[in-house]
Design goal:
Elements (H helix, E strand, L loop, with lengths): L4 H9 L12 E7 L4 E5 L12 H11 L5 E8 L9 H10 L5 E7 L2 E6 H4 L6 H6 L10
Parallel strand pairs: 3-4
Antiparallel strand pairs: 1-2, 1-3, 4-5
This protein binds tetrahydrodeoxyuridine and zinc ion.
The site of zinc ion has 6 residues, from helix 3.
Length: 142
């Protein structure tokens, strides 16, 4: 079975991961609305909590190059276990993508699992949530 080219790119990106603590490499390849692809890998830190996730690094690369609309992301781990973006990364993706963003997860060989962002993160907080709130009272309750 032929591997999705975006998954291939995510696999290439995980080679650059800096993972002295978990030894769990993750690569991400993000396709923006105009077809440009940005990649990222996880970068760990001795304090653990400062670790950057592969998806975050790819998103930062895309946004700093002027792309604020995404349409597809592929994620792969070194062990090709079908890893999905964590909750934090799902929320960060939601800032720049609609519910129909396709998330492709590498299961190894030519196998993938595909989800939409809406499936992975339903009812997300968004710009609209804040616009609907009343800043004067801090509440929009009746
Ligand atoms: N990791 C990612 O890069 N993306 C995710 O969304 C899930 C977790 C990384 C963080 C850490 O370096 C390693 O995987 C183990 O959690
Ligand atoms: Zn994450």
């Amino acid at each position: 079975m032929e591997t999705d080219p975006l998954v291939e790119t995510a696999r290439e990106a995980l080679a650059d991961a800096y993972v002295p603590y978990s030894e769990y490499r993750v690569g991400a390849a993000l396709r923006t609305a105009d077809g440009t692809v940005y990649t990222g890998c996880n970068l760990e830190n001795a304090n653990y909590s400062n670790s950057l996730h592969a998806e975050e690094v790819a998103i930062a690369e895309a946004v700093k190059n002027g792309h604020e609309s995404f349409e597809r992301i592929a994620v792969s781990s070194g062990v090709r276990d079908g890893v999905t973006p964590c909750g934090m990364c799902r929320q960060t993706l939601a800032e720049f993508a609609d519910d129909d963003l396709v998330v492709v997860c590498d299961e190894g060989g030519g196998e993938t699992s595909e989800y939409t962002l809406g499936e992975l993160l339903p009812n997300t907080i968004s710009e609209q949530t804040l616009a609907d709130a009343d800043p004067g009272t801090g509440t929009n309750a009746e």
